[in-house]
């Protein structure tokens, strides 16, 4: 019998994360993995965009700030308060070698709190360090390379449409 929370998840179409590997995901038809959640054990091999790893977001709704001349706004809730938020893009490989010993690289995006877990710091602490130093990369960002982590990730339709034929995962839990 389903409990109340299980029923809400069932009605909302939420699915349990399926344990898999990047190697196994790459063997599947990309369209078949859209909307599903996967649990993976990966090792971060590279920070793909070491300059644009954060953005300004609304403190209330967490959406990206839209620049309007010298000021900024948040169209969803119109609050003037902002904060820094992660959009950390990395490459990763499976922790365990696959049967064919082929290195398969996945591209992962860690947003918000998920990146807090892998960097060990909040974006509000690291992003201000780049002020006046556009090419500065804090050590906590570069230190993600080589880290092993278990993540829950998914491919949404928008990401799939923007990257057809490429498995790009958005991390929802780290």
CATH topology, by name, is OB fold (Dihydrolipoamide Acetyltransferase, E2P)
Q: Strand fraction band? A: 25-35%
Q: Architecture in CATH?
A: Beta Barrel
Share of residues in helices: 10-25%
Per-chain topology:
Blueprint: H1 4-11, E1 18-19, H2 22-27, H3 30-33, E2 37-47, E3 54-58, E4 66-68, E5 71-73, E6 82-94, E7 105-111, H4 112-119, H5 123-126, H6 139-142, E8 148-154, H7 157-162, E9 168-173
Parallel strand pairs: 1-2, 7-9
Antiparallel strand pairs: 2-6, 2-8, 3-6, 4-5, 6-7, 8-9
Describe this structure in words.
The protein has helices spanning about 5-10, 20-25, 30-35, 110-120, 125, 140, 155-160, and strands spanning about 20, 35-45, 55-60, 65-70, 70-75, 80-95, 105-110, 150-155, 170-174. It has about 170 residues and is an alpha+beta fold. The protein has a single domain (about 15-55, about 85-174), classed as Beta Barrel (OB fold (Dihydrolipoamide Acetyltransferase, E2P)), CATH 2.40.50.140. The strands form 2 sheets. The protein has a 5-stranded mixed barrel with strand order 2-6-7-9-8. Strands 4-5 form a two-stranded antiparallel ribbon. Strand 4 and strand 5 form a beta hairpin. The longest helix is centred in the first third of the chain and has 8 residues, at about 5-10. The two termini are about 30 Å apart.
